[in-house]
Amino acid sequence: MPIPPTYLVDNYPLRQVVISPDGRYVAVAGRRGLAHYSVNSGRWKTFVNESMENEFVVRGGMCWYHHILIVAVETEEEYEIRLYSRELELDNTLLLHVETVPSPIVLVALVGDDGILVYCNDNALYHFIVTTTKESISLKLVGQITFHGIIRAPARVRSISWILPEDQLSMSSRLFLQISLHK
Prior knowledge:
four-stranded antiparallel sheet
């Protein structure tokens, strides 16, 4: 499963790598753009249109939700969470969903069966739920919290986890939050 040389030549070194929880998919991101791989098909997918690949940088991470790659990106004008399908070609006109946030994304993490945590440089944590229908998939903002006075250096945060007790799953008002900082 060597990474396609056409991607590496222009985007070395790799800065992000993520493997799906079931081990079926891998995604990599370098200086620009991204590429992803399916163990089942043995195929890498890369952007055919080089200008689309060069229009963004993956910053803040990536995670797999089933066959959907959730990516935190930075363009010249915006900070976005993009949803790419493994089943579709890598093309920014085929994005399943785009969510814009107000500041650079520090990290993206899956939580529970359908939750996504997005922590941003403005010290805000956004909690999204992945909503799916037969025709579409999107992110729905269900809450946010800021850590002003708690976290002094947002860029040093390396991981966040959010655990709801079983009896509170429908009421997200109480939660246990764990934050790891880079020393």
